[in-house]
Amino acid sequence: MSPAQTAGHRRGLRVMAAAALARGPAEVLDFLLPLWAGTAIGATAGQIGALAATEALLSLLGRPAAGVLADRFDRARVAAAGAVLFGLSLFGYALATNLGVAFGAAVCGGVGGALFWVALRARVGEHLRDDAAIYSRLLSAEGTGIWIGFLVALTLLDNDRYQLVFGTAGVACLLAAVLLLSSPTPAGGPSRAQVDLRQVARRLRPLLVVVAVTATVEFGVSLLLLLHLQRGFGLTVGQISLVFLPGFVILTALPLRLHAVVRRIGRAATLTSSLIASAIVAVGLAFAANPVAIGALWAVSAACLAAAIPVEQTIAAEASDGSLGRGMGIYQSATLLGAVLGPLSAGALYQSGGWRGACVGAAGVLVAGAALVPAALRRVGVPDRPPPQPSGAADLVATPAAETVPPAPPPQRRHSPVELRRRWTVRSAVFIAGQVAFAALGHSWLAAVASGRYTLLEALNGDLGDASWQLGASRIWLIIFLVDSIWTWARLLRSRRRHGRESQPG
Asked: Which of 60, 126, 221, 327 could disulfide-link 336, Cβ–Cβ 3.0 to 4.6 Å?
């Protein structure tokens, strides 16, 4: 790799790390805000709804303006400013003792979230010409941030320590800002077309209809599922999180692998299949008998998202005519519109038809959305299949177009052995740090088995009696890490054997 490519690769790694650092706090905040507001400051149900709506509405209205700023100024710095504002909002929640401070934090978080996510996705889109899978890589990084963020947050949440959770999340956002400030766009980077916002919206409109409709259903079903697990099965916050955890891990593992499927069958077929599969999952949720079945169905739903979200973001970037900020701002506005309308429509369906009626109704909407996909993509006017991926895209992030050197012949493997070992080392470091945190708080599964608290047979079977849910989370994380390690080192062994055969004289 040339020095220019190496510099671009490092900038890309910082951007992906920043996305992971901010996505975890964002998801944790959405999950814990209603619980915190009711417990810590005694907010009523109406006040909690107004608090959540304030942040969501400001984030929705701020997306188009954030897109314009991302096209006019350095995108890394705009995203860094958003990360700082979002971090300050989390510190505000940590220190809030009344609704006034909480609403101030919500305002700060709404504006910061709009700036951060629009500018960051536009910054990532600068690499799209050189790496067709770049948005799959972004979703994988965000998925990593989500499940690590939930494990860390729910470990710190022991004894309702919301302040510690929000404070730690705020620090993570400030670290994301530091990473972004250390990765500004190089001089002579990709040119930026100044296309009118209405022109971009006009071209993207068919896609936006599909995105808004499906997002409405997905966010609505997610909210109802939380209530169903809490009220229908009597699960605690930690137990509900464990139901969703496999889906978060899938968002980390599958996006890049599913990109190969997109290249094979095309974007329209991928989106259509994902929506139909999501409809089948919605019907299955209506009749799921226990949380284990719900967790399995939600994992399938996460696989559908892992296929669909990168495709949507890639289409929005390609159709924005060089104005990546405007394109990402409009696309995310459609998604957030679904996030606002979803809970309202799902609540109405739930009241009229109950849990099963709401799920079946959601499935019908998803099937209708799937029927709209082919015509919508034709009207947007982008290729159905991504362009061939050039050499160098095996790195986490490719070099921007202005820095790209003429490509060498395509590599035979997507990731080199060095890259595989490096990534496994990073995941191992995160795993060790998490297990040390569990052990320090007295919730380590490994420590419980080593101390004789449970027999190995009981521990493997999950027969932990009235043990804390954190103990179960520690066990699940260990299983995931072991499976990941076996898979990684099996690939390394196959690669070494293949290299040995190729190096032998003919």
From this structure: 60
0.70 exceeded by the pTM? yes
Q: How many Cα neighbours within 13 Å face the side chain of 454?
A: 22
User: What are 115's two structure tokens?
Assistant: 């700036």
Instruction: Kindly report the three-state secondary structure assignment for every residue of 357-404.
Output: HHHHHHHHHHHHHHHHHHHHHHHHCCCCCCCCCCCCCCCCCCCCHHHC
Q: What angle do CA 374, 376, 378 make, to 5 degrees?
A: 70
How far is C-alpha 397 from the geometric centre of its chain's CA atoms? 17
CB-based contact 225:102 (threshold 8 Å): no
C-alpha radius of gyration, the chain, whole number: 23
Retrieve residue 297's tokens: 């169905």
Quote the CA–CA distance of 176 and 503 in Å, as a whole number. Answer: 43
Those residues whose C-beta lies under 8 Å from the C-beta of residue 382, and which sit 6 or more positions away, are 267, 315, 318, 319
Task: Judge contact between 300 and 277, C-beta under 8 A.
Answer: yes
Q: Half-sphere exposure (CA, 13 Å, Cβ side) for 125?
A: 32
- Which two structure tokens, joined as six digits, stand for 22? 């901010």
Q: Which residues of the chain have pLDDT under 50?
A: 1-8, 187-191, 391-413, 456-466, 506
Which letter does DSSP use for residue 407 in this model? P
Convert the pLDDT of each residue in 3-32 to its tens digit. Answer: 444 444 555 678 888 888 899 898 888 878
Q: Which two tokens stand for residue 309?
A: 């979200």
CA–CA distance, 215 with 332 (Å, rounded to integer): 10
Write out the two tokens for 366.
């998803």
- Separation of CA 138 from chain center: 8
The token pair at 468 is 């804390």
Cβ(253)–Cβ(487) below 8 Å: no
Closest CA relative to residue 301, chosen from 257, 337, 251, 259: 251
